[in-house]
Design goal:
- By secondary structure, this protein is of the alpha+beta class.
- It has one domain: Gcn5-related N-acetyltransferase (GNAT) (Aminopeptidase, 3-Layer(aba) Sandwich), CATH 3.40.630.
- It is built from four helices and five strands.
- The chain has a five-stranded mixed sheet.
- α3 links the parallel β4 and β5.
- The relative contact order is 0.14.
Length: 142
């Protein structure tokens, strides 16, 4: 299958992305309207579509100030297309993007089994003892 890198999604592809999210443990609860709002607030979209059918087959997004920090989110490949190098291709597109290549630090979160994959692109585990990832989840604050 021939694929093409795109930087914005059609309405149909937004629906396909939402369907991809439904199949992953980390994004199962995402709804179409929220995904649309999320994309509107995203700085960079990296996606691969089937060159013929225009079907979405891989996706990632980046939030950034374009100077100091960038955050890579939602690297996802359609299950039937995994093992064909699309995950590598989408991450490579991110790290080689002219704007993002000059950002001081690019961050991501991943499960332990994915660490070796991301290390291939120069990511390292940041285990400084004086820093902690903190989160504030909507609806969980009293």
């Amino acid at each position: 299958m021939a694929v093409r890198l795109i930087d914005r999604l059609s309405d149909k592809q937004v629906e396909e992305l939402t369907a991809l999210y439904q199949k992953e443990w980390w994004s199962q609860r995402r709804k179409l309207d929220d995904v649309r709002r999320m994309l509107a607030g995203t700085d960079f979209v990296f996606a691969f579509e089937d060159a013929d059918s225009k079907e979405l087959v891989a996706f990632a997004r980046v939030l950034t100030d374009t100077v100091y920090r960038a955050y890579l989110f939602d690297v996802i490949v359609k299950e039937s297309q995994r093992g064909q190098g699309l995950g590598r291709a989408v991450v490579e597109a991110v790290v080689k993007h002219p704007t993002l290549a000059t950002v001081e630090k690019l961050f991501l979160w991943c499960r332990p089994e994915l660490v070796p994959f991301y290390e291939e692109f120069g990511f390292v585990i940041d285990s400084r003892p004086n820093l902690h990832i903190m989160v504030r989840a909507r609806g969980e604050v009293s």
